[in-house]
């Protein structure tokens, strides 16, 4: 994340032309954003939707790349097409990008980790994540660096659209603090190792989030599935009562990623529904928030989210660690999970 941000953000904000020649001029014309990606990269796109809509006031669509080309998409004028991919070779993402050419977008932007990849070569604009090689199949640092890159995009779009100067400066300071905030989150590891032991005998887990922390819950559940082979689902917490609550009992732990801000009270009442059904609650709570998993078998872990913009990236780290330690304890191959490939090129 340090490398993603380096020389791209300064005390006065996002530096000019970090998206390539003519990038700032093109971005100034954008009236909407369409993001496509697969797997973990798709979850990064989902987080970015909350950011760009809130701070830049632009409409954002996010779609799995594997579906994009099978739909007769109606493209509003001056829409920016964004492809997010760690490898830059994922077949569905590449095919979506090629299809987007026929559909009349303003420009395509690649957020990618591999400079010589097809996605990067074929895009009009690019922002490299500079995550270094991802050794394991499951994306981890790819995700946090994609979030850092997408936050840079959001701030650039917001600045161009006249976001209040004080708020802009505060968001830039938050983003510059992200590497430190992640370092602090990593210090939770001993507690996460203890927590992981709880999951070893389990077959199912439920992840809940609200707002921009909902995609983080999705990512936490994906990591658990990918590397420890525990069936995990993620829901926006408000959807609990529309079905998944039927699954909750003492054998189904519920992991909640608590947002700071106005959605926290909503989440609390959703969690009360879990508690009332005897479900085991594990809550990742923002340092300052008045949030407790509750009496009895609830567990609360506190993290300093570092502010509303960067909290999704910070809260991802303990969830990645949780999946990692559960996998290690279950004896699965963390780097080479069964049935998965690093880069899905077919
Ligand atoms: C997309 C992705 C990864 C996942 C796995 C399979 O890859 O779904 O998120 O961890 O490696 O591919 P990419 O387009 O981001 O390279």
TrEMBL record:
SIS domain sequence ranges: 23-163, 195-337
Alphabetically ordered keywords of this record: Aminotransferase, Cytoplasm, Glutamine amidotransferase, Repeat, Transferase
EC supergroup of this enzyme: transferase
Record's signal peptide: none
The protein's role, per its UniProt record: Catalyzes the first step in hexosamine metabolism, converting fructose-6P into glucosamine-6P using glutamine as a nitrogen source.
Summary of subunit composition and partner proteins: Homodimer.
Protein name stated in the entry: Glutamine--fructose-6-phosphate aminotransferase [isomerizing]
Residues of the full protein shown: 263 to 608 of 609
């Amino acid at each position: 994340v340090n490398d993603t941000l380096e020389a791209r953000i300064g005390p006065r904000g996002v530096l000019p032309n970090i998206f390539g020649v003519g990038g700032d001029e093109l971005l100034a014309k954008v009236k909407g954003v369409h993001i496509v990606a697969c797997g973990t990269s798709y979850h990064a796109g989902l987080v970015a939707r909350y950011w760009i809509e809130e701070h830049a006031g632009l409409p954002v669509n996010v779609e799995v790349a594997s579906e994009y080309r099978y739909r007769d998409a109606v493209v509003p004028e001056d829409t920016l097409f964004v492809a997010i991919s760690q490898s830059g070779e994922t077949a569905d993402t590449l095919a979506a990008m090629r299809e987007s050419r026929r559909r009349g977008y303003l420009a395509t932007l690649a957020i990618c980790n591999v400079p010589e990849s097809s996605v990067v070569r074929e895009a009009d604009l690019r922002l490299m994540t500079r995550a270094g090689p991802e050794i394991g199949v499951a994306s981890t640092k790819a995700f946090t660096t994609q979030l850092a890159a997408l936050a840079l995009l959001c701030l650039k779009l917001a600045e161009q659209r006249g976001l209040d100067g004080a708020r802009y400066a505060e968001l830039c300071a938050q983003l510059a603090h992200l590497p430190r905030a992640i370092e602090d989150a990593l210090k939770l590891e001993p507690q996460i190792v203890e927590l992981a032991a709880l999951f070893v005998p389990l077959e199912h887990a439920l992840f809940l989030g609200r707002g921009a922390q909902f995609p983080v819950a999705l990512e936490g559940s994906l990591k658990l599935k990918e590397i420890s082979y525990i069936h995990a689902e993620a829901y926006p917490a408000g959807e609990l009562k529309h079905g998944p609550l039927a699954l909750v009992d003492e054998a189904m732990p519920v992991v909640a990623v608590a947002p700071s801000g106005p959605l926290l009270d909503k989440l609390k009442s959703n969690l009360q529904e879990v508690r009332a059904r005897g479900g085991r609650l594990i809550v990742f709570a923002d340092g300052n928030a008045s949030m407790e998993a509750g009496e009895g078998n609830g567990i609360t872990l506190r993290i300093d989210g570092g502010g509303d913009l960067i909290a999704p990236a910070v809260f991802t780290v303990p969830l990645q660690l949780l999946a990692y330690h559960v996998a290690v304890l279950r004896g699965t191959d963390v780097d080479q999970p069964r049935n998965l490939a690093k880069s899905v090129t077919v």
